[in-house]
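Pasting as-is:
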Amino acid sequence: MDSQFILRPAQPEDTTAIFELIKALAEYEQLTHAVTGSDEALQEHLFGSHPYVEALVAECDGKAVGFALYFYNYSTFLTKPGIYLEDLFILPEYRRQGIGKAIFKYLAQLAVERDCGRLEWSVLDWNEPAIAFYRQMGAKILEDWQICRVTDTALTHLANSDPRVNRV
């Protein structure tokens, strides 16, 4: 398959297609059980009164075939914002057509335009094709950093763990 594609910022009418691509990503990563959100929540977080994330849509022949979802982080050492790419996914039959490279170029241009100090993302350690692609794009895989995450009941427990710590 060798179709022309367009890459554009997501619009509210793209939300259902993006959520379907999120579920396809979860299937690829064998994490379908982890998808507990909804396209309604995604719509609110992308386009509501207080957006938390931004997204790009890759489209071929009017069909959403890929997406990238990103948000700001911050580097205290650089004292600059950064862009964190939470997810990038392209349907398997549309890979190797330059869509991934176009997404990274778009995000790099956005980071430069917005005076960001870096563009970051994570990759699963077993995803060798992605790791090779990211290295080809100039990324350094930070072997000495580990992701820490608190979710679900552990998050609630942590939030309520010490009554001496109160928010003002």
